Amino acid sequence: MNTAPVPAPSDEHDEYGSPDPSGGTRWLTAEEQFVWRSYIEAATLLEDHLDRQLQRDAGMPHVYYGLLVKLAESPRRRLRMTELAKYAKITRSRLSHAVARLEKNGWVRREDCPSDKRGQFAILTDDGYEVLRRTAPGHVNAVRQAVFERLTPEQQKSLGEIMRIVAEGLQPSEAGADLPWLR
Fold this sequence. Notes:
This protein has six helices and three strands, in the order ααβααββαα. By secondary structure, the protein is mostly helical. Strands 1-3-2 form a three-stranded antiparallel β-sheet.
């Protein structure tokens, strides 16, 4: 959660911990530390807030809700498991476990891919769609209350732009990238 502590100023570092031009670690400034720690705290609290709301209202964690949403938005409410893992930014193993739990609830079913013997589809069932339909209003209210009602329209726009830049920078496009959802 925290970055390395800022070392005391020395001959090699200025008062903000920035290294000298000869190399070394470029420590976060006090302002950067404040921004980073504020982000981590907010992201952790938001995820916990949404998890608790969804557990209370539907008996599922936030990540499961996201899987149901993605399936509901997909043509014929179906998606290849590899694509669903990529969307959720989780390993295929974790996705397989999540889908197994959703299958147990009757909300998702798997189907073999006819063109690829190793591939499978995850398909949102009618029961899963109904759970999503009933749960969505409470979830939207939780998101609105936690984020959008606290920000001005300009702050909302800035937040969206900033998060898009960060997300794009963290998703390498080259083949063979070491990404969890490809494992």
